[in-house]
Amino acid sequence: MTLPDDLADWLRLTSIPGIGGETQRRLLSAFGLPGRVFTAGRGALAGVIGGEAAELLLSPPRQQAIDTALAWAAEPDSHILTLADTDYPRTLLDIADPPVLLYVKGNPAMLQRPAIAIVGARSATAQGEANAEAFARALSEHGLTVISGLALGIDAAAHRGALAAGEGGTIAVVGTGADRIYPARNAAIARDIAAHGAIVSELPLGTNALRHNFPRRNRIIAGLAQGVLVVEAALGSGSLISARLAAESGREVFAIPGSIHSPLARGCHRLIREGAKLVETAEDVLEELRGRLGWPASSGRAHPAGTARAAEQGAAPAAPRQPALPMEDDAARVLRAMGHDPADIDQLASRCGLTVDALYAILLSLELDGHIARLPGGRFQRA
């Protein structure tokens, strides 16, 4: 593919250590395109960003990194979008810190479509993942692109649901270079996203997973979407950062409530107390977004079958229903005692009046049959 003549200048501007996004945008505002920045002269540059930063800017370019990025951008389905490109998503201009460059693996047109971000806990419950997948599928079937962060748990479930729908598609905004996959367990789904959607990063190629990069990418997740749906989140979750950034940028914030006993529901409950919209069905989300997107009161699409219909008429569906157990069976007694909240082995033993050894054997059988799921921390929950 043909690359823009000035792409090397954009790459040089964004590859200088110590020259961050805010400084880059100040330079572009003062001098125009990057080529003019580098020909402006030290005195003029120092007047805008100071003498020390001007010296950094005029240091020799990191040519190997620039050449690597140019070669990557020449590959099929690899793109580098700049702030000056017509394909650069306009919604990102609403946020306080729009990235100067975006590396996109896949279809860059996806970034212009109406979208909903679905985020949540990495250590999600089985029900949380089922909810994320069902909501993503239903919303995608109504034409919304689903955006998430390719993390384990809720993110991966949201991507799976959107890919299964095959309608609105999905975008993964990653906290590594666009040529890296993290976590490695999501390699297969990352390939599917690149083939049927887009993987997006502002970070230079080759950037590995660094903790401080993940909160920053959340502003891009929030900025690309018209709303953010939080499925499960602890009080310290990065998903709450996405929700806060979305609210600050004028986006809608949605949250699914959960059990008062679940740590992964507390973040959602805090968002609801602070004004997020409580949602129980995909239709709750669509009703709020229709006006923002200029859609008619009815979406105008045939009511989707299966998962989407179930998600809109009631709570989002979990895994396929398992055969009923005989009510006098010890396994049925354990399920009744478990209820619908996570419970640990001691709680279940106390409720059922069974020994821990006997209870472990029953729980293993229930888990193998798909009736329950094992959670982090030695807890169990109905599937």
TrEMBL record:
Residues 319-378 form the DprA winged helix domain. Pfam families: DNA_processg_A, WHD_DprA. Residues 304-324 have a biased composition (Low complexity). Residues 80-289 form the Smf/DprA SLOG domain. It comes from the Bacteria. Residues 297-325 are annotated as: Disordered. Transmembrane segments: none annotated. Belongs to the DprA/Smf family. This is DNA-processing protein DprA.
